Fold this protein.
Amino acid sequence: MNNINTDRNRDRIELYNTFILAIATMGVAWCSYQATLWGGIQTFRLAESNKYSRLAQQKMIQSGQNKAMEEGVIINFVDAVFANNQSKIDYILKGVRPELATILSDWMKLQPLQNDTSPRHPMVMPEYEKLMEKRIDESKQMTDRADAAFKKGEDANYNSDRYSFLGVVFSMVMFLGAIVTKLLRAGPRLGLAVISTLICFVAIVWVLCCLPIAHKGE
């Protein structure tokens, strides 16, 4: 009779252990899949961050180059205004970008030679300062997008690491389950099965409640 009860208990523990092993196996597969997806997301987000960082640098360099060229144009324009060289003034106004031509024309309308309160040159015009701020803002927007993409890359890396860790935890559950099948005494078998179950339960709750799910194509 005792042998029959012992066999039944052994069968129950083996069935129970098989169920836990099946869950742990699926947990390992799921965590490996999610870790891979999050790793891919991290790669693309960091590449996106690098792209926007380069664009921000390009915008800043272009802004500096444009300002350097505009300084030369403005110097020639001011000289033409002082010399009252209308043909040179018209030539410069036609040859520069429309936004700069508008600023130069508005500065002339203020009659800087007769009006002491007018800006001394076009580069201190509020409109020109706004133009420079706009160029800087374009670079800042690219920098902000680069920072946001980098933050997403960091988050993806963190999620990938956590899924990898839980994959190891589920693998440990499988290892404990394999040991259970080799033990002969009922007490140690049951105790080890309970321990592996608790670890598996905690890992499942962590996966389902605490970790975001990555989708292919994100």
